[in-house]
């Protein structure tokens, strides 16, 4: 019996327990890939690297890699990984909406979302290896957008499997509690051979949103967070067939 793989690999990802991939499984997967369309995955057309903070504990900050599918001009969906390595862990999902869509949401729903203006203006949100001039128009739109990010696998605390309920994540903000730790930014700058400060200076002309809805970034206004818990409830059974 093969030994279970444990520990970390690459840029901080966790290896789940389990047997190594067999040659037979590799061949099977390659054959399936050739025969199937995998259409939803092929719609991912951007890689965004940024940072996120746990809503219930903002001392926990992580680098995130979003693989973005643009459904339309007002709605995007992102598969979120903990690195851009081939063996990265899928740690969650983020939905991104335009300000127009966000304003149509109920206030209770808006509390679960965060604004992106600071992420964009501060240079924290980047498209690795893509020139700024290529993504400038997109960045202008993203600066007015809002996101809802659920983390389902907390690899930053060493979890080898996605255990427990999902955690709501927040966007960095220009206030002390919500600012990203400098060492995290420097680590990313070194890896991609870039300067977040220099990127920030190139974005001075990107307009600030005229208004950021205060229901977003709820913790800034109220010092409160949202934490998910699992509880037993009565099951809704299927009604008897006539």
From TrEMBL:
Q: Where is this region: Disordered?
A: 1-24
Protein family according to the UniProt entry: Belongs to the OBAP family.
Q: What is this protein called?
A: Oil body-associated protein 2A-like
Query: Can you name the source organism?
Result: Capsicum annuum (Capsicum pepper)
